[in-house]
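User: Can you write out an input/output pair for a complex, sequences first and structure second?

Assistant: Here is one pair. Inputs:
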Amino acid sequence: MADAAAPAAAAPAGRRARLRTDLRHQPGFTPMAWVCIVFLYAPIAVLIAFSFNDNRSVVRWTEFSFRWYVEAFGNEGIRNATVISFQVATVATLFSTIFATMAALATTRTRPYRGQTLAYAIVNQPLMVPEIVTAVATLALFTIIKKATGITGIGYLMLAHTVFCIPFAYMPIRARLEDMNLTLEQAAADLYAPPFQVFRRVTLPLLMPGIFAGVMLAFVVSLDDVIITLLVAGPGETTLPIYILGQIRRGITPEINAVSTLLLGLSLIFVTLFFLIGKQRKT
Amino acid sequence: MAEAQSTLVDARRAAEVRERRARWLLLAPALLTIGIFGLFPLTITLIYSFLSPGTYGGVTWEFSTDAYVQFLFERDIFDGTLEFSSTYLQIYGRSIGLAFVATVGALIIGFPTAYFIASKPPEQRNVWLFLITLPFWTNLLIRTYAVLLIIRDEGIINLGLINAGLIDRPISILYTDTAVFIGLIYSYLPFMVLPLYASLEKLDFRLVEAAYDLYATRFQVLRRIIVPAAKPGIVAGSILVFIPGLGAYITPTLLGGGKELMIGNLIALQFGSSRNWPFGSAAALILMAVVMVALLIYVRNASREGGNHG
């Protein structure tokens, strides 16, 4: 990291002088930052590029084409997996966001109370345990329940997703609540608004950006999950990532690139929305 | 007078009770869902680890410490004597080693990056941070697949090197520890950069200026001022890379090729084709124990730093 001479010597004299007087400059740090960005994006860029390649190969470029997307849309397995993914993500997002909102209301803007730290720790528990451990533990519990009740179905998968989505939905909602001060709500209460009305007419509208952000995160996290789904999902409950994993194991085709690109795009839309909502908050 | 005061006290107490009840009612759905379907299953794993495996997966209700014994010993098939075996210890050792090396690698790339971002003007910082965070929110499986695509023998790196005449035969990276190492850094690099940035952002550059006034060299400034300022971020970032790296499943499955196991594969395998749920449970609990130790180190460090963590 201390080899200052190499890049500086090649730079024009003006730039070199500026770097020498720039107090913040550390030699080699700027190139490393660019290495970091290239490292993070180059593999994804290659994947996306070859999803548009009109060839079976994922290395030799021939011609631009949407061929693999057409094929992906025509593939029944992919269509079914997409439907399952969206069903699970929608249900998990709905419940986890409601539960997280309620929990956030109970853990912010209050005087410290007994059990608050514990409640906070429990809500964040799914983040602390390695996913593979959660996955096998959930599998064990669901197997017991299935054996005892005979109930099967996709509900189990939705439930498992709800659990790990709660902390992700909780984070932005809690952050938003902490930014809100109590004055408006107190004013409403002073004007004899009953508590529920205060909540519906004042708290909830103010909280909405946080809730939207929570919805986005929960949805993305559910949509992207692999490990827990892999162990918990029953037959016929193949989500999109699980389908992709199966395909990769069978052999690499440009069709996987196309589906992957679509899934990446989907996550990208949700995350960008999340960031935009977050930005709005500060202004 | 006294009566009025006591009704006031009563009213306040009643309000407090109401508030407490409302609070726990609000918390109930989240706490119950996570408690029953997140925490309770961990207890089941604990119980399962002391039972005997069922023939077709699952368990039979017979107390046994075999799962833990199996971790360290191998039973001779013929006379049933126990012999020390390091097979599973090696898997844990490998995982810890790989996660550690990946953490160091992420630190080497992440530290300069975080510093570079922190030294940018505030309006540019958000763009950089967005760029760093974005991959984290995209699918880990797909990102790992993307790495697989470029490091394959027929991947773009090898092809490029061959076409450039630098090598004649492809360098085999895929399905080696190196591939897992690259995959782990790639997966968890954002976790390293973000806490590092959070610490470095608070660095007072007047300290740097003062150091230069006192004739410090660039390296001395780095070592004596910048690195100490970043220490909470270094610790937090290392923990955030090390822990998920240790329990990684997708990375070793795809890039390690399944020959060289990591803890994640070992656990999943026991619940899958190996059909030894008690041993899988024990392996999962031992992983949890390692994670707890790492977390304890972090908490102790964070509280010593004044508890200013995210």
